[in-house]
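Q: Hi! First time doing this. I have a protein sequence and I read that you can turn it into a structure. Is that right? Here it is:
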Amino acid sequence: MIKSELIEKLAATNPHLMHRDVEKIVNVIFEEITGALTRGDRVELRGFGAFSVKHRPARVGRNPRTGDQVSVPEKFVPYFKTGKELRIRLNPPDAPAEKPKGRKKAAKAS
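A: Yes, that's right. Below is the predicted 3D structure, encoded as structure tokens:
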């Protein structure tokens, strides 16, 4: 689901709200999460998960094509850890194991 689909679904389930108001609400929520992460804060949505920022120190990497050493600068990356309720809903204890539905890898030509 992409952001526009989320807005459409929320607008459809809440007909008392105008579409543009739903769009503003979704944008404000995303801006607040982004702002909190920018400040280095942690954002926790109970039952869903927690967003945080992880620090990756500078390191020396390798160019896979040439094998040359490349310096990789330090950076901060967003990190998401799922909440317990979400993990349980994705992996119910009594359900048979199935492969997740998603993009299929292209078959290799032999």
